[in-house]
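hey m, so remember when u said the tokens were messed up on ur end? i reran from scratch. heres the input so u can diff it against urs
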Amino acid sequence: MKHCYSFYLILSLAFVSTQSASESIASYPEGWENWPIVKETVSLPSNTILPSDTTLFIQETVDAYSWINNGEGSPLTIRVNPDKLEQYKTHGPYTDGPTAVGVSEVQGIIWVTEHFGGLPIYGSYNREGQDISGMHPTLEAEFCQRCHDTYKDVCINGTCAEPVLSIYQSDSSN
């Protein structure tokens, strides 16, 4: 019986650690819908062919989110907490609290960037404020953190500055 108890304890701990790994760290910011829009872009469809000189950041972003809207892409709206607009213009440093949201307009995904102790933290929610970070690996806070940390030249202090749409449009006009 003691051996069986140990097995269930280990199994329970594994389940709890898996559950907590996929939870958002940033909180859902009530009222984000009224924050000013600072950027409009898109998550591109899965069949997008990017120009050969597209940055690695854009290539990986397109690859990571090509599943959105069944691979059809979606308009993406970036909104910034009005209390942090001046900080956003210089990409920080940021004061604590909710900073920005990215909204996949078709799918209704709300990516949240919040700052705590001067550091960015992340979360993924639906429009009703429910944590959806477990819905897809690219919605997990750890995924966001890893990408933003990898591309610190683009994601300064946790907010990214290279819109996908403008790069795609500049090539498609040729």
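this time it looks ok to me. The chain has five helices and seven strands. if urs says something different then somethings off w ur setup not the seq
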